[in-house]
Amino acid sequence: MKNTTTLFRPVNDKELELIKELEYKAFPPRLPEQPIFYPVMNEEYATQITRMWNVNDYGAGYVTKFEVDTNFLKRYEIKNVGGAIHDELWVPSEELDEFNQNIVGLIEVISEFKK
């Protein structure tokens, strides 16, 4: 059994639909204007982003939870972008396919927020 790290990702309706199309096994490719994929290290931060940005910008937001092979994640430095809970990984979009291959199990939606 692989050693895994739990990560979280706030998503909007459109990204959630793409995740569903990928059978909850991967995140969709980034758009050209999105050079970095940002999974976050804790549920509290993911919830904060979802409520502040996704709900305001899209009317709804979802927090996803997923496991990634811990050894694979060692290549990425944890970046703190604010307060104590604001830890995230910066995965270059060209590495997202490899990142997806290191997801263990399925991506699950653990909370939903709407206006």
User: Count the helices. How many?
Assistant: 4
What is the spatial order of strands in the main beta sheet? 1-3-7
Helix content percent band: 25-40%
Give me the Rg, rounded.
13 Å
Mean pLDDT: 96
Unreliable segments of 5+ consecutive residues: none
Residue fraction in strands: 25-35%
- What is the H/E order? EHEHEHEEEHE
What number of structural domains do the residues give? 1
Distance between the termini: 41 Å
By CATH reckoning, the class would read: Alpha Beta
CATH architecture classification name: Alpha-Beta Barrel
Largest sheet: 3 strands, antiparallel
CATH-defined fold name: ADP-ribosylation fold
Tally of DSSP β-strands: 7
Q: What is the 3D shape? A: globular
Structural class by helix and strand composition: alpha+beta
Would you give an account of this structure?
This protein has 115 residues and is of the alpha+beta class. The protein has a single domain, classed as ADP-ribosylation fold, CATH 3.20.170. It contains four helices and seven strands, in the order βαβαβαβββαβ. The protein has helices at residues 13-21, 43-58, 70-73, 96-101; strands at residues 4-11, 36-37, 60-69, 78-80, 87-89, 91-92, 103-114. The strands form three sheets. It has a three-stranded antiparallel β-sheet with strand order 1-3-7. A hairpin with a 6-residue loop joins β4 (78-80) and β5. It starts with a strand and ends with a strand. The model has no long low-confidence stretch (mean pLDDT 96).
